[in-house]
Amino acid sequence: MNRIMLVVAALLVSIAAVADEPEIRAEVIVNAPREAVWKAWTTEEGIKTFFAPASHVELVPDGAYEIFFAPESPAGQRGTDGMRVLLVQPPSALAFTWNAPPSFPEQRKHRTHVMIRLYAIDEKTTRVLLVHDGFGEGPEWLRVRDYFQKAWTEYVLARLVKSFEPK
Fold this sequence. Notes:
The protein is α+β, with helices and mostly antiparallel strands. The chain has a single domain, classed as 2-Layer Sandwich (Alpha-D-Glucose-1,6-Bisphosphate, Chain A, domain 4). The protein is built from 5 helices and 7 strands; from the N terminus they run αβααββββαββα. A hairpin with a 2-residue loop joins strand 6 (112-122) and strand 7. The longest helix is centred in the C-terminal third of the chain and has 25 residues, at 139-163. The protein is globular and about 45 Å long. The N and C termini lie far apart (63 Å).
């Protein structure tokens, strides 16, 4: 019995530690079929509709997942230069590495992780769950996390929803 209690206690501590992880979780409902939302996240044409004016996507594990917010800027300053695909499970899951914007030069050297999950609510509606984790510790990392909390919710996901609204 004591052994079981120790295992349960260890699991509870592990769950509590994960709960303290400074991750971003955001979700939206998109009025579009899951396959259409998948294409928005995974094709250069789709990315232009809501995310950024240019991109380079190789939809295979360790392929490129580069989103260019400033495509005219020098290499390394265009956006997510050098980011990689971590997971591809069409049409339900995509994960990729991510970096901080150039305004956070030390944090930009590191990689965080973004997971996109797509859930078909029905034939014409998709729930999109975004989880962004891997943030470091300290005040600058908190600023990076706050930056992305706003960017993902107020910009990227809001524009994704809007991109599927009737014109």
